[in-house]
Amino acid sequence: MKPLDRLLQSWRIAKILPFLNSGARVLDIGCADGALLRQAPALGEYVGVDPAIERTRHSDGGTLIKGTFPDDLPDGRAFDAITMLAVLEHIPAEAQGSLADACGRFLRPGGLALITVPSPWVDWVLAVLKFLRVIDGMSLEEHYGFDVRQVRAHFAAPAFQLVAHRRFQLGLNHLFVFRRA
């Protein structure tokens, strides 16, 4: 990852940190290299899952699992929070609803789903930055024509309640916070 990729990743993480309580059990879907764990060391338990991880590894602060959610989680214990930072746009549209359902099954009642997704025109901006070699543009080819309006539809009542929706990164990204009912 290039410095601008890291900066954008860190910015997304900073947006969700106020919603993570100290001692929380957190599942980070699409965790990349576990950057969330490094920025939020006071978490009670961290589990990150990503198919691009080289290998599953454990550390004092958490576990990074090479695999997919929910198939490769070691157990069915509930989480206080599930994060998906710049992940939904990489999931094919037909699989996003079942992903939201699985989040509902793995969140404790009152738990939070913390989601960041790009605005519709961000792919063009990222393509230009990648062409200029300013960013690596992690897996841009997987941005399946994502529609940000679908986030609310997938994480809908009665299973979830919208707590917050904000734009950030100059309007290029959205933060959604849903509470499991």
Q: Biggest sheet, open or closed, and with what strands and sense? A: 8 strands, mixed
Q: Kindly identify the CATH topology.
A: Rossmann fold
Amino- and carboxy-terminal Cα gap: 37 Å
CATH class: Alpha Beta
Provide the gyration radius in Å: 15 Å
Spatial shape: globular
Q: Under the CATH scheme, which architecture would be assigned?
A: 3-Layer(aba) Sandwich
Share of helical residues: 25-40%
Question: What's the tally of helices?
Answer: 5
Domain tally: 1
User: What is the spatial order of strands in the main beta sheet?
Assistant: 3-4-2-1-5-6-8-7
Strand content: 25-35%
Find the CATH superfamily.
Vaccinia Virus protein VP39
| Mean pLDDT across all amino acids | 89
**Structural class estimated from helices and strands:** alpha/beta
Query: Which residues form runs of ≥5 with pLDDT under 50?
Result: none
Order of helices and strands: HEHEEEEHEHHEE
Q: How many beta strands in the DSSP annotation?
A: 8
